[in-house]
Amino acid sequence: MLDSTPPNVNLILLRHDNHANVSGYDRISEYIHHRPFHHAVNPSFVQRVVSALLRPLLTRSDMQWYRKASLITETQAALRWLVTSGEVFHFVYGENSYRYLGWLNRLRSNHVVCTYHTPPNRFREVVRNQHHLAGIDAVIVVSRVCLDFFEKVLGPDRVHFVPHGVDTDFFTPAVDKKPNADRLQCVFVGSHLRDFEVLSRVARDFADTDANIHFNVVTAEDNFRYFDGLTNVACMAGLSDEQLRGVYQQADIFTMPLTDCTANNSLLEAMACGLPIMVSDLPGVRDYVDETTAILVPVGDDQQFGQRLRELISDQALRDRLAKMSRASALEFSFPKVARMTQDVYRHVTGQLSTTTDNSAQS
């Protein structure tokens, strides 16, 4: 009989500055009992000395995002590894945080789990040498687009698809939202792998033909330049969590052209707020929406994006239907549900869950 007791879990955590406090993959830590290892943003004197001694490991990592804080945090996790056994060490952002802990696999019977978020082509640029992946017991990917890449490296039994989560209690549809017949608002959120060229061309076309369509763009200030001179675009940065939610809730349509993606926080947040979705048709997107729940547009095609947006604007019934579908779909990606699937991966690597009963986290 398999042991149903959850294994002890150590989470190697990282917060990205561009994520809202209520967003980001690391939020899963609130739903899993764990020992935390936070990235050493302000390292102690001892940690600085240790990182100086281990500097050669930093220079040879061949990982673009593996920094001094990553090395210090991984060293802390290694010290825990050496005094325990049977525990799970989960790097929630493997691209940034995991490099050397797998070297200790033969010393203690612990288990390395890494979640990877980067599309395969970009991953090869960020993680140039992938030999260290062999030390991982289980990889979690947040999009099926990454399955083939990691299965070729590790084999299918060690690779699991578990979707990204969203806080469906914080991101909710507006209560008693009053439609504005004189001005329809589209919202766009984010910076990473966004197609600003497409969005700016679409916004410019609407500025010339229909000034009643307005675009709220929440992004890094460096991206404001794409919308210079467009009076129908309001660019915003540095919003609080509540302000960001308000922007979603007051919008009529979520518009997000992309160049590539796996999971996407902004997409999930807009869905949770009950917005009709218009997004680029990418494999990573289709893990979260499809033709029945969103308007999918070919990548890089501003003409199609503009045309489909006009059709959606003119069809209130379609917008209402997609809005309901968005919220219903988002509930399937709530953090508690995703945490349970993640814990199934932990049980799988520790032998508490058989491969045949683990298919829900892979398929």
What features would you describe in this structure?
It contains twelve helices and twelve strands. The chain is elongated, with a radius of gyration of 22 Å. The protein has two domains: 9-165 and 334-361, 3-Layer(aba) Sandwich (Rossmann fold), CATH 3.40.50; 184-331, 3-Layer(aba) Sandwich (Rossmann fold). The strands form two sheets. Strands 2-1-3-4-5-6 form a six-stranded parallel sheet, with helices on both faces. Helix content is 34%, strand content 15%. The longest helix is centred in the last third of the chain and has 16 residues, at 316-331. By secondary structure, it is an alpha/beta fold.
Multimeric state of these chains?
single chain
Distance N to C terminus: 25 Å
Helix content: 25-40%
Strand order of the largest sheet: 2-1-3-4-5-6
Q: Can you identify the CATH class of the largest domain?
A: Alpha Beta
Q: Could you name the ranges where pLDDT drops below 50 across 5 or more consecutive residues?
A: 356-360
Q: What gyration radius follows from the Cα positions, in whole Å?
A: 22 Å
Shape assignment: elongated
The arrangement of helices and strands along the chain is EEHHHEHEHEHEEHEEHEHEEHHH
Question: What is the residue-mean pLDDT, rounded to a whole number?
Answer: 91
In short:
By secondary structure, this protein is an alpha/beta fold.
Summarize the topology.
Blueprint: E1 9-13, E2 35-38, H1 45-53, H2 55-59, H3 68-81, E3 88-91, H4 94-97, E4 111-116, H5 120-126, E5 138-141, H6 147-154, E6 159-161, E7 184-189, H7 196-209, E8 213-218, E9 233-236, H8 241-250, E10 253-256, H9 265-272, E11 277-280, E12 295-297, H10 302-313, H11 316-331, H12 335-349
Parallel strand pairs: 1-2, 1-3, 3-4, 4-5, 5-6, 7-8, 7-10, 8-9, 10-11, 11-12
Helix pairs in contact: 7-10, 9-11
